[in-house]
Amino acid sequence: MFEQLDALLLARIQFAFTVSFHFIFPAFSIGLASYLAVLEGLWLKTGKPIYLDLFKYWLKIFAIAFAMGVVSGIVMSYQFGTNWSVFSDIAGPVIGPLMAYEVLTAFFLEAGFLGVMLFGMNKVGKKLHFAATLMVAIGTFISAFWILSVNSWMQTPVGYEIGANGQYLPGESWWDIVFNPSFPYRLVHTVIAAYLTTAFVVGGVGAWHLLKDKANLHARKMFSMAMWMAAIVAPIQIFAGDMHGLNTLEHQPQKVMAMEGHFESHPYGAPLILFGIPNSEEKRVDYAIQIPKASSLILKHDLNAPLAGLDTIPDVEEPPVGIVFWSFRIMVGIGFAMLGLGVWSLLARFRKKLYDWPMLHRAALVMAPSGFVAVIAGWITTEVGRQPYVIYNLLRTADAASPLDAPAVAASLLAFVVVYFAVFGAGVWYILHLMHKPPHAGEYGVKRGDTGPIRTAGITPGPSQNPGDPDTLPRTHEEATDGR
Amino acid sequence: MDVNVDLTTIWAFIIAFAVFAYVVMDGFDLGIGILFPTFDVGPERDRAMNSIAPVWDGNETWLVLGGGGLFAAFPLAYSVVLPATYPLIIAMLLGLVFRGVAFEYRWRDPGHRRYWDAAFTGGSLVAAMAQGMTLGALLQGIEVVDRSYAGSWFDWLTPYTLLTGLGTVAGYALLGATWLVWKLDGESQHHARKLGKRAAWATLVLLGGVSLYNVFLNAEYAERWLTAPEIYFAAPVPILTAVIAIMLLRALSVDRHSKPFWLSLALFFFGMAGLGVTMWPYVVPPGLTIWDAAAPERSQIFMLVGVAITMPLISGYTAWAYWVFRGKVADEGYH
Q1: How many Cα atoms occupy the beta-carbon half-sphere of A242 within 13 Å?
Q2: Nearest chain A residue to B296, by CA
Q3: What is the Cα–Cα distance from A215 to A220, expressed in whole angstroms?
Q4: What are the residue boundaries of the structural domains of chain B, listed by start?
Q5: Measuring CA to CA, which residue among B66, B96, B98 is closest to residue B82?
Q6: Which one, of A399, A408, A320, lies nearest residue A2 by Cα?
Q7: Alpha carbon separation from B258 to A159, A258, A465, B73, B182 (Å, rounded)
């Protein structure tokens, strides 16, 4: 199937595949780490066991999601070199240090405290354990900070010099590089997206258990917390997204042209195309449903403001319009659906029916994975929208790849696809299994053994009185009776 | 571009330190994975796994620092070595995927635990072998033309790289076995001790083989090790290695605690020192020195500030995490 594809296209597919798969996990674990810190903090503050139960319930899920994020993340840190060696050589002096800072300030922090967070509650005391949880949560945020700075520099490169050997070298100020023009907007928009993604997962799980038993107090608590997030954070996210869009208009206008489907320039106010089918051949949007002048209103806050279209851009500089146009609409559509659910939940809350409206719970259940779709769609919008450049206006993607032959990249791509679907598919299945269990009082933490009650070293185990771990999948008959 | 000679040397040592930290810390994790099939299904396997479950992620982070640090401090080396060893790197990454998720999955799914245990072993073995072969491929030389890898597909596959790969597998198994001697007791400790002895012999034989092969690999390497005056600086490395080896074999017979592990670490340290003597000042033999591949001074200084601030903190909390989980591992030590 790969004969017609060249090495460059394969490398692009491989990067897109591995980074999309990877980002699913941090999108969840950034938010979940903070949620866990909030739950543990509330437990310490109020002493109510329900918070500890919820903490332990979500901790088990976090352990799996985090492991998947780690192993898929290491792939990313090496893939710059394996598949994009020209890019690595040229941009290394500028973005390499930022990534080194990510390792030093974030990855070590997360990994160093993760062991204590997962397994150390009975070993270090409550407050130190809470400190460990906080460190993991802070680590996920710092990680997002640096990697988004790197990505933003590639979108809006500033503060560099060009060396005699063709490398981009850091200029006078690292501050300019780290806080490049698109970075603050991208950071806010992405981190809020991770929080929303997590909130909708938590809300969906709460809703699922409310549909089965609306008296379940633990399900009520998680659903209520998640719906507060939806109601408060979804509008903030829409505002942050709008700001990010205006920033993009300033620095990467052709990306916005593609998002809007503006093939033509509109000197007297541009229409907002709600839906349509972008036709890059004919340079028009077929079957467009549009609101006159609304795009100018949103982007320029003036009905009659002129907006340039893709006709002002040479064809070789034009991003693939169809992908960007659609992925942008998916992201925005989900954003407004999230807002809708948040408003609906407020209505239910004020009528004291938050736990009594099955339709609300069904909607929350359906929307549980919506955050993942939205963040991937958002990344597709911004990454495809900056094409044909990998470093905007400086280095073309086509000039950045490693000198590898197509069969080598085809083989690795195939291996990644097979392994990722198998391994991460299994992980998602285990997470769904844990979510399927109702949260309850006396929740177990992350268990690391199922051979019997707790024993200290040196005491001979008695005959197996296996109480089993209620969170594991059932054994096969064969293993249950193999005489262990 | 002006290259700062001193900063570049400092950075070469920082990267070497990160690689060494990775090799010994994830080395014992991977070693336990390699030895895993020899442990009894049930408590013995569970305890071996539990002895590293709280720390493996931190250990693996040194690999990201090694790779990320190379990218940042020697971008040209990073962008040459990785394409040159492409299949090895991809194999290592996929091996680490299987190894990493097995820590969680095996507890979640007893019905398929044997498969995740196999993934743990297979992943560890592939990752160890690929890392050793990558080292071999680097030592035997990588062809660079015009800032880019210029060799062919299978340059990395030679008898020499197979030897370095096997040496790494044996060395990791030694680290894993001696770690378990420290962390386990009773029958399991006895078992780990037995494995440790075998792994120690295998490591020493393969280390000797690689060292001899190095001398014949090219004239420049031979000159460093066999002619005066270099030999006076180089000679202590093999002599000390031999002393450590004898102490290690003795300790493996009698010690119940950490001594074999520390001696294995020392063995790796001198192996690494020998590597340094062989390669210096090249980062990608035979053509690229550390100064050819170095990042500009501004990048080096910016990162050095970060390292100076964070490294003491990282050492501190990493040590604390190990301290929390100190002592022998009980049947069900973690909740």
Answers
A1: 13
A2: A93
A3: 8
A4: 5-324
A5: B66
A6: A408
A7: 51, 62, 34, 35, 5
Q: For A156-194, write each residue's pLDDT tens digit.
A: 999 999 988 888 989 889 999 999 999 999 999 999 999
Distance in angstroms (rounded) separating the CA atoms of residues B321 and A435 = 29
Q: Is B315 on the interface with A (CB under 8 A)?
A: no
Q: Is A67 on the interface with B (CB under 8 A)?
A: yes
| Partners of residue A437 on adjacent β-strands | none
State the Cα–Cα distance between residues B143 and B155, nearest whole angstrom: 9
B288 to chain A, any CB pair closer than 8 A? The answer is no
Token pair of A76 as six digits: 């990313």
Two structure tokens written together for A396: 């073309």
Helix or strand run (H / E) with residue A256: helix A253-260
**Selection from B93, B325, B98, B57 nearest residue A136 by Cα:** B57
ipTM: 0.88
| pLDDT for residue A472 | 60
Model pLDDT for residues B294-317, shown as the tens digit of each residue: 888 888 899 999 999 999 999 999
Contact B328 A457 (CB under 8 A): yes
Query: What is the value of pTM for the model shown?
Result: 0.88
B68 close to B31: Cβ distance less than 8 angstroms: no
Identity of residue A449: G
- For B282, list phi and psi in degrees, rounded to 5: -85, 140
Say if A402 is an interface residue toward chain B (CB within 8 Å).
yes
Contacts of B307 in chain A (CB under 8 A): 104
A116:B324 CB<8 A: yes
Partners of residue A396 on adjacent β-strands: A389
pLDDT (tens digit per residue) in A373-403? 999 999 999 999 998 999 998 899 988 888 8
DSSP classification of residue A365: H
Q: How far is CA B158 from the centre of its chain?
A: 20
Q: What is the DSSP string of A103-115?
A: IIIIIHHHHHHHH
Residue B224 corresponds to which amino acid? R
A337-341, A476-480, B71-75: which range is least confident on average? A476-480
Query: CB B80 to CB A68 under 8 A?
Result: no
Strand residue runs (E) in A292-391: 389-391
Q: What distances in angstroms separate CA A342 from CA A34, A36, A50, B89, one per listed residue?
A: 20, 21, 24, 46
Arithmetic mean of pLDDT, A398-424: 91
Residues 24..83 of B with a Cβ closer than 8 Å to A: which? Answer: 41-43, 46, 49-50, 53-55, 57-58, 60-61, 63-65, 67-69, 71-73, 75-76, 78-83
Size of interface A-B (CB pairs under 8 A): 315
Give A307's contacts (C-beta < 8 A, 6+ positions apart). Answer: A260, A262, A265, A266, A269, A270, A295, A296, A299, A300
Find how far residue B66's CA is from the centre of its chain. Answer: 11
Specify the 3-state DSSP secondary structure of A147: helix
Stretch A300-309: mean pLDDT = 87
Cα angle value A104/B295/B22 (rounded, 5°): 40
User: Which distant-in-sequence residues (6+ apart) come within 8 Å of A210 by Cβ?
Assistant: A216, A219, A220, A223, A355, A361
Which residues of chain B are under the pLDDT cut of 50? 1, 332-335
Residue A31 near residue A375 (C-beta atoms within 8 A)? no
The CA distances from residue A361 to A205, A208, A345, A373, in Å, are 10, 7, 9, 20
Number of H helices, E strands in chain A: 16, 6
pLDDT greater than 70 at residue A452 = no
Q: What is the DSSP letter of A276?
A: E
A448 interaction partners in chain B (CB closer than 8 Å): 46, 49-50, 53, 107, 332-335
**Residue A172 has what DSSP assignment?**
S
Nearest to B93 among A78, A80, A112 (CB): A78
| A298 lies within 8 A of chain B by CB | no
- Listed by start position, the domains of chain A span 227-401
